[in-house]
Amino acid sequence: MAANATTLIVAKGSKLTVFSMASDQPDDDTLAAHMLGPTGNLRAPTIRTGDTLLVGFNEDAYAEHL
Questions:
Q1: Which of 6, 19, 14 is nearest to 48 (CA)?
Q2: Which residue blocks in the chain are alpha helix, DSSP H?
Q3: Dihedral, CA atoms, 35, 39, 60, 54, nearest 10 degrees?
Q4: Residues of the chain with pLDDT > 90: what percent?
Q5: Is the pLDDT of residue 9 over 90?
Q6: Range of the domain at 9
Q7: CA 53, 59, 63, 66 torsion: positive or negative?
Q8: pLDDT range class, residue 13, cuts 50, 70, 90
Q9: Phi, psi (5° rounding) for residue 64?
Q10: How far is 64 from 47, CA to CA, in rounded Å?
Q11: What DSSP designation does 15 have?
Q12: What total of structural domains would you count in the chain?
């Protein structure tokens, strides 16, 4: 899922982490550490809009990309 996106935005609380998948793709362990919650499941909500993948909820990020 993340490999097909050009931008990955991960929200954990109020903290946002942005990955540029096109130019500087992180390794699988880094992606898993950011995209998976404490139970090992994908953080919710997860939404793909265009070439951007939003993981977790951050109101500002959603307002900007949706």
A1: 6
A2: 28-35, 59-65
A3: 30
A4: 76
A5: yes
A6: 2-65
A7: positive
A8: confident
A9: -75, -35
A10: 13
A11: E
A12: 1
Write out the two tokens for 1.
Answer: 């899922």
CA-to-CA distance for 22 and 32, rounded, in angstroms? 18
Q: Cβ of 15: how many Cβ atoms within 10 Å?
A: 9
Q: What is the pLDDT of residues 55-66, one digit of tens each?
A: 999 999 999 998
Residue 11, burial from CB neighbour count under 10 angstroms (0-12, 13-18, 19+): buried
CB atoms under 10 Å from CB of 29, counted, come to 8
Confidence of residue 45 (pLDDT cuts 50, 70, 90): very high
Question: What's residue 3's pLDDT?
Answer: 77
Say how far apart CA 13 and CA 37 lie, in whole Å. Answer: 12
Mean predicted confidence (pLDDT) in 40-56: 94
